[in-house]
């Protein structure tokens, strides 16, 4: 099933609830576009998280779940998602996130160990439950920092703060 990963961990490291004031469909469309646009882009680590490594950059790669696998969120997959969303909003959207880290050393770009996360968005009325699970890696970015980075981008895209923290676990 598109958007749902059967093997999502039962015990995520971080759960945050947000309230939102737009339609689920609009929020889902915005989140998909943001993750699609973030794919392969370079960000200074300090823009995403409190940097544990100075002068480090991070490149995100996102994949959308489809039953037992994740498909890289490229142009074709994004079109497929938007088409499915037009028919019916999702209740659950699961994503895989690889965070690739690079540091400049002696004029060269050196790759560091990557982090791998699974992110679940659950939509219920005007409540968004987000779950994030750190699968493996050095955890240079805290799970809640990834969620905040994505939600802040959504709020900027929608021109006002429509997604607000409701409850945090």
Overview of the structural elements:
The protein has helices at residues 24-38, 45-48, 75-87, 143-157; strands at 14-20, 42-44, 56-66, 69-72, 92-105, 108-111, 115-124, 127-136, 163-168. By secondary structure, it is an alpha+beta fold. Strands 1, 2, 3, 4, 5, 6, 7, 8 and 9 form a nine-stranded antiparallel β-sheet that branches. The chain is globular and about 50 Å long. It starts with 13 loop residues before the first strand and ends with a strand.
Please sum up the structure shown.
This protein has helices spanning 24-38, 45-48, 75-87, 143-157; strands spanning 14-20, 42-44, 56-66, 69-72, 92-105, 108-111, 115-124, 127-136, 163-168. The protein is an alpha+beta fold. Strands 1, 2, 3, 4, 5, 6, 7, 8 and 9 form a 9-stranded antiparallel beta sheet that branches.
Number of domains: 1
Q: Name the helicity range.
A: 25-40%
Based on CA atoms alone, the radius of gyration comes out at 16 Å
What's the rounded overall pLDDT mean?
90
How many beta-strand elements? 9
Helix and strand sequence = EHEHEEHEEEEHE
The number of helices is 4
Features:
single chain, 169 residues, alpha+beta, nine-stranded antiparallel β-sheet, 4 helices, globular
SSE inventory with pairings:
Layout lengths: L13 E7 L3 H15 L3 E3 H4 L7 E11 L2 E4 L2 H13 L4 E14 L2 E4 L3 E10 L2 E10 L6 H15 L5 E6 L1
